[in-house]
Amino acid sequence: MPLPTQDSAPARCRHRHPMRAAVGVLLVAYLCIAYLLMPEAWSRYVRRHPALDDVPGITRTHSGIPGDPINLALVGTREELVRIMLRAKWLPADPITLESSLRIAADTLFRRAYVEAPVSSLFLFGRKEDLAFELPVGKDPKQRHHVRFWRSPTLDVDGRPYWLGAATFDQSVGFSHTTGQITHHINGNIDAERDRLLSALQATGDLQETYSVPDFHKILRGRNGGGDRWWTDGTLRVGIINPAIQSTSP
């Protein structure tokens, strides 16, 4: 068997140096992710998640029938919430009055625009929504993206309130399957609407960060107050509004 030449051993050493460097880079990356980034991410999650432990997952109608599920939350003052929704081109819904009720009925029938049409009231924490916004679709109020928000009694670690939201897409107008009343029927994919709204808010540049609370919903399928089916992956998406947006009151 031929003996190795004088150049063969140094050649093998030269091949080992890049491999050692690559292993070193991977090790450093692993240590950073496992011992710095992941613990920090989980510490943020743990700080905020307990405040959502006792939050109801389903809204209720005035008569106590289960309504639309909660699928997202925002952290910020009332002024910050309104401002970021307006920047995302979502408009506040008009309050329900006789005039607004007659107008939405007429505008739906005659296919006229009503970009701030009222939304029916749902209840969480024993009270109706604090704020409601919508994004019109088409030429009349029959189809629209909309979201209701309730101010949670719990506060974030920064002392700002949570706003629990139920975002859904109204895809048609018809009779309620539970009461027979005229109502909007929602699209059942509430996760798509949740993600759509959160993406629009991220596009404003005014969300400081987002995170997810898995298994927020234990029941992943159901029907709302109008009898419409809904389904979800069970995750609550949370957005933290940048506190640099100046506000005067919580």
Key traits:
about 250 residues; alpha+beta; 2 domains; 8-stranded mixed sheet; two-stranded antiparallel sheet
Query: Major beta sheet, specifics?
Result: 8 strands, mixed
Q: What is the global morphology?
A: globular
**Average pLDDT over all residues:** 75
Radius of gyration: 25 Å
Secondary structure class reads alpha+beta
User: Percent range for helical residues?
Assistant: 25-40%
Distance between the termini: 84 Å
How many domains make up the 3D coordinates? 2
Total number of strands: 14
Order of helices and strands: HEEEHEHEEEEEEHEEEE
Helix tally equals: 4
Strand content: 25-35%
Low-confidence stretches: 41-48, 96-110
What's the SSE blueprint?
Blueprint: H1 8-48, E1 58-60, E2 66-69, E3 72-75, H2 78-87, E4 91-92, H3 98-109, E5 123-124, E6 127-128, E7 131-137, E8 143-155, E9 161-175, E10 182-186, H4 190-203, E11 207-213, E12 221-223, E13 229-231, E14 236-241
Provide a descriptive summary of the structure in words.
With 250 residues, the chain is an alpha+beta fold. It folds into two domains: 1-53; 57-241, no CATH class. The chain is 31% helix and 30% strand. The chain contains four helices and 14 strands. The strands form four sheets. Strands 3, 4, 7, 8, 9, 10, 11 and 14 form an eight-stranded mixed beta sheet that branches. A hairpin with a 2-residue loop joins strand 5 and strand 6 (127-128). The longest helix is centred in the N-terminal third of the chain and has 41 residues, at 8-48. The protein is globular and about 70 Å long. The relative contact order is 0.17. Residues 41-48 and 96-110 have low confidence and may be disordered.
